[in-house]
Amino acid sequence: PIEELREANALLDVLLPEIEEAIPNMSLEALTRLSLTMLIVRTKDYNDIIVKIDRAIRKKADKLDAFQTANLIYAFSKMNEGLSGGKIELYKELEKNVFKFKSEFNHLELSRIFLAYSKKGLLTKDLSEKVILPWVKQNISNFNYAELANVAYGLMFTGNTDKELWRSFIKNVSTQKHRCPIIHYQPLKYARIYVETLAPEWDFSHYEDTCFEPERYFNVLRQNKFQNDPYFAALVSALKWDLQYEDIKMYVEWENLFIIDFALISNKFAILIRRPESALENKEATPLFNLRKKLLEQNGWTVMDLDYNSYSEMGPEVRNNWLKEEVDKYI
Asked: Is pLDDT above 90 for 282?
């Protein structure tokens, strides 16, 4: 319940000085549990705590066990409201333990590891070829929905086009005993559209039947936070009022899967704002942002990738002139 979460946040804020002071001397078990706690709570000095936990773990990462390794990777990949936390160096240290404990992880843990490294753009060739892909190929017929959802994102984020692997994925989803839970639906729908481009001749009717209930109730508009979005508000002002692009629509829903920030529907022209949370540490777009762009382009859309950081660094007049030149190139 939200009220209980607020109380937990308030309590943690009171204890924050003691927690921060204790972090360097915490056991690995305590650091793991504190990291998992950070998945659900928000403190005043949230980022400072994450940095301190990160440093403390890296100093003794070689002493982690399999349980701690799997849960730390999961925790850091889901922190910050799902945007992930932790430095690249932390993931590199934890990767050594993934190799060490690869035979001890269960399917859910390995699926979370696959997702964590692929969504950060940190899945190395060795990790992919020696651990992840052999495990996926051997076990994909046995995954449950949670594991399928994680693996779907991982395969798409890494651009996997192995038709036989995807055939096994589609068959698993299509033959599940129960309907897909709505919480795991979005990546499975991404996967269906992704695979339809690879194999348009395949029959997806059973797959769609499995996902029928969540398709009825899932509403992508509810998943997006429209209010207090400064990036979107700034572009509305520039496009609609300053530059007078009156036919450009805002918040266009695509396939009930994600939102196109701005679209000229008659031209199938889309603008996707690359917000700060859609960029990796090296400033490149996240795999999820690239996946959305790719799916639109494969379905006949022309997509403008608008890097908001670069846009905001321009002066107001230069910014509008640049925006007009860029948009006019596409339309």
From this structure: no
How many whole angstroms separate alpha carbon 39 and alpha carbon 43?
A: 11
Q: Which residues pair with 271 in a beta bridge?
A: 262, 304
Q: Which residues of 86-120 are buried (b: 16+ CB within 10 A; e: fewer)?
A: beeebbebbbebbeebbeebebebbbbbbbbbbbb
pLDDT digits (tens, 9 = 90+) for 105-156: 999 999 999 999 999 999 999 999 999 999 999 999 999 999 999 999 999 9
Alpha helix stretches (DSSP H) within 224-315: 230-236, 287-298, 308-312
- Average pLDDT, integer, range 158-176: 97
Can you state the angle between helices 145-157 and 163-174, rounded to 10 degrees?
A: 150
Buried/exposed 35-61: b ≥16 CB within 10 Å, e otherwise: beebbebebeebeebbebbbebbbeeb
Query: Sheet holding 269-274: strands in order across?
Result: 249-254, 258-264, 269-274, 302-307
- The stretch 29-57 carries a mean pLDDT of 85
Q: What does residue 17 show for φ and ψ, rounded to 5 degrees?
A: -60, -45
CB atoms within 10 A of CB 30: 13
Q: Which pLDDT belongs to residue 221?
A: 67
Q: In the structure encoding, which two tokens stand for residue 319, read together?
A: 């910014």
Q: The tokens of 280 are what? A: 């990796």
Q: What is the DSSP letter of 177?
A: S
Instruction: Give the list of residues 6+ apart from residue 62 with CB closer than 8 angstroms, or none.
Output: 96, 97
More confidently predicted of 90 and 50: 90
Cβ-contact 169, 191 below 8 angstroms: yes
Q: Which helix (H) or strand (E) holds 52?
A: helix 46-59
Q: Tell me, what's the pLDDT at 3?
A: 78
Mean pLDDT of the 50-75 span: 96
